[in-house]
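#structure-requests
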Amino acid sequence: MQQINFGLLREYKHECESTRKLLASVPFDHPDWKPHEKSMTLSQLAIHIADLPNWVAITLERDGLDWAKEPYKPKVATSTEELLKIHDDAVESAIKSLSVATDEKFMENWTMRNGDKVYFTMPKIACLRASAFNHIYHHRGQLTVYLRLLNVPVPGMYGPTADFEM
């Protein structure tokens, strides 16, 4: 296993376990709840987080993404079980892609565009960090706030929370 791959794979597996714990806490009794009119609904945010691991394979196995040719089609979940299935399938795909990636693959450029409008071009390693890994961490933080506002106990991901001791 090459150097970049080894570190990313270990980190990613650990973070996916934490993400799964958080997603397992999502209630579906108020799927359309949101804390602000500009916010995603609870179910939209949770499904987005569950689906984000698919970005790993999209990044590593392709040269880019053109939204004009491939409009985003969000997945659907109406229960915690369906949400976890989306996540588990996406994580399996991500780990498979990460497991076989070479250091050279991580250095290849990847481009996100919408037709002629290029949003960015960067090495795949940077894209993974920004659009796949950090993107999940950002939205997990949002989801913990949603859960807190709904009085749902927040599981610990890096240690105990006000709701759970480790």
